[in-house]
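Dig into this one:

. . .
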Amino acid sequence: MTVIEARNVGLTFRTDDGPVHALKDVTLSIDKGEFVSFIGPSGCGKTTFLRAIAALEHPTEGSLTVNGSTPDAARKARAYGYVFQAAGLYPWRSIAGNVRLPLEIMGFPRAEQAARVARVLALVDLEGFGNKYPWQLSGGMQQRASIARALAFDADILLMDEPFGALDEIVRDRLNEELLALWARTGKTIGFVTHSIPEAVYLSTRIVVMSPRPGRITDVIESPLPRERPLEIRDTPEFIAIAHRVREGLRAGHGHEV
């Protein structure tokens, strides 16, 4: 079942210095339960496309639907959770208070808020940390709390904009493993922006390679890797072959640069 459908999507920003063409002719379908990564150089439009899915930006060309409706309607229907590059936790609220915030805004009953917060903190391995404050947690734990907040209202779609980019490699590897386990447990549809080729290959069922601005899709790579993926899979010939194809797609994309 298709949950995200883009047809010839273009997006142009109007600025004082003239138009900026962020996306051009983006056509892509994402099915329920897929893990799709978007990779490309800085400024290629991958974050812009993710934000368009979330109705934070609006295409100027083509059509984009989420669950068969407009992104704005999907946002109002709470169809997705969004995880930004920075954890964005309020320092004056406890971890549980940060995770609970969207539930408060949506008007969930207090008992249900507490139950949902407990469930998602357990889901991201933060049981026992609800009363801590953001400054008392490591960067990786703060990002897990941010993921818990996005999961709190149990949307079927999780949109993640380079959530691990600022973390060191050891922490990033651990969170990659945890994210795969969380995806396996929840069955959510995940759209994931990254600059890292190994991260994109390790996490995804499909990898969307994008060109420099205006952002176009230069390749869509179906992963033959099994869904259960230990970190050691990165040393296999199959993994290395996919990474090579992604790298080649990134190189080829520079031929579209204007």
User: Anything to note?
Assistant: The chain has two domains: 2-79+156-256, 89-154. The first strand starts at residue 2 and ends at 15. Strands lie at 2-15, 18-31, 35-39, 61-66, 80-83, 157-161, 189-194, 206-210, 217-222.
